[in-house]
Write a structure and sequence with these properties.
The protein is an alpha/beta fold and 443 residues long. 49% of the residues lie in helices and 14% in strands. It has two domains: 20-227 and 424-442, Glycogen Phosphorylase B (Rossmann fold, 3-Layer(aba) Sandwich); 235-422, Rossmann fold (3-Layer(aba) Sandwich), CATH 3.40.50.2000. The protein has an eight-stranded mixed β-sheet, with helices on both faces.
Length: 443
């Protein structure tokens, strides 16, 4: 019965998606600078840049991308219709540490190497565009797009060099990412970029509010949400057999609950509070198991928490970066997905889980795009909002779902419907191109 209803629902929504696809957008030539881009994906930034550029091409836009290359990737290739350039980063360790600010020197060896790589990437990218692509190959562009502080220096250089409008996409701020302990150098780069950019695009109303309070020019800021590939992230794409295999891999029986967290294992994601919450969950649902998948600085701390709270049977820690295919399979296999971020400008992982028809529990304090994604009550409810600083409240959200399997299924269906209504990449890309067009018309 569920399969029939799902299939029927998909084709109804498919009609809506086709109507969105035919929205007229003028052809443009975009120059995109993104530190992360396929196949070098670390977090949401790389996923966003890769997916939206694919959609731009499908909508008839010409897209050229400049991204990072540590020497193991092709320097130039066409992927999904996108012209990707990856200048190889040069090693500046012999001198860079002696000419940078005292604050950056305090980052230490790996921090200095990271910052020097960013500066090299920006300079090499700007030089390649201005000298090779424009002057030698005769390429033309309409808009420069820089993603986060990691690419804004190159964007600013090219704005001056080519006299083109610059769009600054801000996916998070240094102050927010650092939980109030920002790098002064990175903050200054963000603010200079915001002041000189012609348009700022950010991912949620929560982010716009945060940015306005710390000095970003609010009159330039436009909110456009992120999206998800709803055709790829669909539960029917994973077989029942594979779902069973995944659950068996972690020793989760059919009658047990599988709770899933996928993400970076860092303080800002609230994963340590999630682990602690399982001491409350297990008292009410001893048949619930939490699976944590990811890499990050909290790995040893999480092991210690599992031991401290005697959660060896309730928590499984898998320290690995898994492929997108595996991610899809794990979403399909879980019963509930939990993302208790302390700071989350948007939260693509929540969209992915919702698109896979899974109810979600999300952090909803402070700067939280998750609060805007997830409806916590009413007929369209698709999950619960919790205080990510409080393990007991996280457990309340999880327990509220586990108490009723039929309601879990209803909320999962609602999540899928919300994605189709508001968060498809096609719709997001169309809205973004319209914003670029308005900028060009006003220039």
């Amino acid at each position: 019965m569920k399969s029939y209803l799902y299939t029927k629902g998909f084709y109804l929504f498919h009609v809506v998606e086709v109507s969105i696809t035919i929205v007229s957008v003028e052809l443009m030539k975009l120059l995109e600078l993104s530190w992360e881009f396929y196949p070098s994906l670390v977090g949401g930034l790389g996923t966003y840049a890769s997916e939206i550029c694919r959609q731009f091409v499908k909508l008839g836009t010409d897209v050229t991308v400049l991204t990072i290359n540590k020497g193991d990737l092709k320097k130039r290739e066409i992927w999904q219709g996108i012209d990707i350039h990856r200048p190889i980063i040069v090693n500046t360790e012999d001198f860079f540490g002696s000419i940078i600010s005292e604050e950056v020197r305090e980052w230490g060896g790996r921090g200095i190497e990271f910052f020097s790589n960013i500066i090299a990437y920006n300079i090499l990218s700007a030089s390649k565009v201005a000298n090779d692509l424009v002057r030698i190959e005769g390429m033309e562009f309409d808009v420069i797009v820089a993603h986060d502080w990691l690419s804004i220096a190159g964007g600013l250089s090219l704005k001056r060099e080519l006299n083109l409008p610059l769009v600054f996409h801000i996916h998070s701020t240094e102050r927010g990412r650092s939980l109030g302990n920002p790098s002064r150098t990175v903050e200054q780069l963000e603010l200079i970029g915001a002041q000189r950019a012609d348009l700022i695009v950010t991912v949620s109303q929560a982010m716009k509010g945060e940015m306005s309070t710390i000095g970003f020019p609010s009159e330039k800021i436009k909110v456009i949400y992120n999206g998800v590939d709803e055709r790829k992230y669909r539960s029917s794409n994973v077989s029942t057999k594979r779902v069973k295999e995944i659950r068996e891999l972690y020793g989760v029986e059919e009658e047990e609950f599988m709770i899933l967290f996928i993400g970076r294992l860092v303080a800002v994601k609230g994963v340590d509070k999630l682990v602690q919450s399982m001491s409350y969950v297990k008292s009410k649902f001893p048949n619930a198991k939490l699976l944590v998948i990811g890499l990050g600085a909290l790995q040893e701390h999480l092991r210690n928490l599992v031991h401290q709270y005697s959660l060896d049977k309730e928590v499984d820690l898998r320290y690995e970066f898994i492929s997108e295919k595996e991610r899809l399979e794990h979403y399909a296999a879980c019963d509930v997905a939990v993302f208790p971020s302390l700071y989350e400008p948007f939260g693509i992982v929540a969209l992915e889980a919702m698109s896979m028809e899974k109810p979600v529990v999300v952090g909803a304090r402070g700067t939280s795009g998750l609060r805007e994604i997830v409806i916590p009550n009413g007929e369209k409810q698709c999950g619960y909002h919790v205080n990510p600083y409080d393990p007991a409240d996280i457990a309340w959200g999880i327990n509220s779902l586990l108490v009723d399997r039929e309601n879990m299924e209803r909320l999962g269906d609602n999540g899928r419907s919300r994605v189709l209504e508001k968060f498809t990449w096609n719709g997001i890309a169309t809205e973004t191109l319209h914003a670029y067009q308005e900028l060009l018309q006003s220039s």
